[in-house]
Design a protein that fits this description.
The chain is an alpha+beta fold and about 290 residues long. It is about 30% helix and about 35% strand. Helix 3 links the parallel strand 4 and strand 5. The radius of gyration is 21 Å and the shape is elongated.
Length: about 290
């Protein structure tokens, strides 16, 4: 049966998430915490997240949640160890409709055939696959092409960022919906760095950028883009090198993660050529609710 997550469920929920972590064929978008205390703060204390567990014989055997995302909601899960996974998923879809979300997204690991099958049975459609690659501490420096320069953008100018993002990004518009304050706050902390490439001969107009996110031991390229007229010159490669150099200047950072969508064949080939290894592939699913 479906029940809203309560404090009494948190220990068993932590066990369920640990079980999910053990194999790629079980993984989907899920809370980051893996302790009852961390799950309390992440799942129960937040005002936006709405989470449920599937109980079988009094034990937590499934989990799913709704979190605001883009123009609708993202689905955490479905994570099902035993019991009726379809009943849990249909419950989550009903709750999303009741909340008035126009679209519900899900992000299972590509190897998670069980979750993907459930999603498709309920009406979700696969949109694209995102591949994640990781490399250890490596010198990825690359010369900046003549006529360009790369600088750390601090502080972030929301108008400049938004203009560059709209010119460089041809597949996503997520950041265009962020307010000036949301953009400033995003780049304010030490865990996020922004580098921009500028054309030195055209009034210093920015033509590319890379966003770097850091935690205690790992760095991630969250976004990298170059405007169409500046592509094919090695500028994206130089931006990657600049971000990697900044990340690995911290001796605590042991690895760098990058990502590429399935249509970005050149980026995938470059990452493999540089020595990155594929660590995960996530399929984006969407369900229009209205």
């Amino acid at each position: 049966m479906n029940r809203p997550v309560a404090q009494t469920h948190l220990s068993q929920l932590a066990e369920l998430l640990a079980w999910m972590d053990e194999a790629p064929e079980r993984r989907a978008l899920a809370p980051e915490a893996r302790t009852p205390e961390g799950l309390w703060w992440e799942v129960l204390a937040g005002e936006d997240e709405k989470a449920w567990v599937w109980l079988e014989a009094g034990r937590v055997q499934g989990y799913g949640a709704l979190v605001p995302f883009w123009d609708g909601a993202a689905l955490e899960g479905p994570i099902v160890r035993a019991g009726n996974g379809r009943a849990l998923l249909e419950h989550l879809v009903r709750k999303a409709r009741q909340e008035g979300y126009p679209t519900l997204y899900a992000f299972p690991e590509a190897h998670n055939r069980a979750a993907r099958r459930l999603l498709e049975e309920v009406g979700f459609s696969a949109q694209h696959t995102t591949y994640f690659y990781t490399i250890g501490r490596t010198d990825l420096s690359y010369p900046v092409p003549p006529g360009y320069k790369i600088e750390r953008a601090e502080p972030c100018d929301p108008a400049v960022y938004r203009d560059l993002y709209s010119r460089a990004e041809d597949g996503w518009s997520l950041r265009l919906h962020w307010t000036d304050e949301e953009l400033r706050q995003h780049f304010l902390g030490a865990e996020v760095e922004l580098f921009m490439a500028f054309h030195t001969d055209r009034n210093g107009k920015p033509v590319g950028m890379v966003e770097l996110e850091l935690d205690d031991t790992q760095a991630e390229i969250a976004y990298i883009g170059v405007v169409p007229e500046a592509r094919g010159k090695g500028l994206g490669r130089a931006l990657l090198g600049a971000a990697a150099g900044w990340a690995f200047s911290n001796p605590q950072i042991g690895s760098l993660q990058v990502r590429a969508h399935d249509h970005e064949k050149a980026a995938q080939a470059l990452y493999k050529q540089l020595g990155f290894r594929e660590t995960s592939a996530v399929v984006t699913y969407a369900l229009e609710l209205f």
